[in-house]
Each structure stands twice: as structure tokens, then as C-alpha cells.
Amino acid sequence: MSSSGTNTTSSNVDAINALQHSKILFIKVWCFTMISCGFVGHTLSIYVFTRRSLYSNPCARYFLASAMIGMAVDVILVPLRLLQAGYNIDAFVSSAAICGILTWFLNSIKALPSWIIVLACADRTGPPIGMLTFGLLTIRNVRRSVRRIIPNSNLSQTQNETRQRQKATDRQLIQMMIAQFIFYTLTTTPNSVYFVYSSAIRHEYLYNLISLLELNSEF
């Protein structure tokens, strides 16, 4: 009877060890893949968005800032997480103050790219919302629109081609912004829902525990 229980316990321990080993191996492969692909991707993004034809576009500047911060995440945050989860080397245990500062700094860096995409969306959708919300801005926008409307007969062929290229660039940047917005929404929403759910469950557990302690104290 005891030997069968010992065998069962040993098999459970082996299964847990195998699962833990698989988890560590997956973390290593995933982190190295993120570092290599992220470095190449962010480098190409920085190269593209620093071109003179795109640098004057405000939306391109948002993407450039997002790529730079993403590069910082890729070369700082991901290696630290790799050392912590893959090799059991924790850089946050030297002191409580350093742990708090590093945690705040790294979490802030990790959240900045998504907030930059939010700012890019606000930059593109802000003027229409402003025109609907503030009546005074409507007159200003109409005056600007009138000044910008020039008959096609007065435009040279070079000006027409330049304007068409600018419109095509704006369309491509808006498509990139929408794609990144959808990607961030799909990847961050489950995590946010999990945190909200875990917080609700934790509060419910604490409430039940306090109620149980109060009930026991009455007896």
C-alpha cells in the first residue's frame, strides 16, 4: 500500500519537474526569439521613420518614438525577464528600494509603446472630435480648409504628384496605426480582463475570510 503511494508521489514529482523544465525551455526560446526579431524589426522601423520624406509627418514621429521605446524594451526588459525566469538570476533582490525603482521604471517603459499608439490615434481623431465639441474651432477649421482648397488648374504637375504621394503616405500610416491598435487591443485585453477578474475574486475571498473571522470571534 505504501509502495504504491510512494510510486504515485514519485510519478507526480517527475511530472511536475518535466512540466517545469518545459516551461523554462519555452521561456528561453520565446525570449531569444523576441530579442532577435524585435531588434531587427525595431531597427528597420527606426531606419524607415527617420527618412526625410516621413520625418515631417506627425504620425510617423509617433511610430518612431514607439519603435525607439520598443527597442529599449527589447534590449533591457526582455533580457532581465529571461535571466529571472530562465536562469533564476534576479536583478531585483539587491534591496527593496532598487527593486521598487526598477519595477516602476521597467513597467513604465513596457506601457509606453501602447500609450504612444493611443496618442497617435488621438492625434488623428482629435480634430473631428474637437470640431464637434467646440464650436469655436469650427470657424478656424473652415478658414484653414478654404485656404487649402486650390483649383487643380492652378496646380502644376509636380505639386499634384507631391500631394498624391503625401496622401498615399498618410493612408499607409493610418493603416499601420489601425493595425497596431487592433494588435494591442487583442493582446492586452485578455490580460486586463484577467487582472480585473483576479482582483474581484481576491476581494471576494478577503470578504469571505473577514466574515468567517468575525463569525468565529462571536463564539
Describe this structure in words.
- The protein has 219 residues and is an all-alpha fold.
- The chain has a domain at 1-124.
- It contains six helices and no strands.
- The longest helix has 62 residues, at 157-218.
- The chain is elongated, with a radius of gyration of 27 Å.
- The model has no long low-confidence stretch (mean pLDDT 73).
- This is G-protein coupled receptors family 1 profile domain-containing protein.
- The chain crosses the membrane at residues 29-50, 62-80, 173-197.
- Keywords: Membrane, Transmembrane, Transmembrane helix.
List the helices and strands and how they pair.
Elements: H1 2-49, H2 52-55, H3 58-86, H4 96-133, H5 136-148, H6 157-218
